[in-house]
Design brief:
alpha+beta, 4 strands, four-stranded antiparallel β-sheet, 1 helix
Amino acid sequence: MKCIVLVFLGLVAMVAARPDFDFSAEDSHQVQDIDDDNTITGSYSWTSPEGVKYFVKYIADEDGFRVLESNAVPATASGVKADGRQGSFVSSEEHDDRK
């Protein structure tokens, strides 16, 4: 859930960085579903000032937050696109045994 909030705050920061961008709720959309096993799937989209519609579909489960499909997330240098099989974004702090 923290990752979703961070992603959303990142989008807000992008919008705030463009003072000439008139952002409204009609420019974005977000859907999220939580299963009984606490797996979160969802998507969000937004329209750029140039009129380009971007989207991100994601999953957050025991393996962490992963982008399943997107036209906003670039491919790696070797051409690998986000498909959910890439490494998760689990924080190393969550696995730190030092107290």
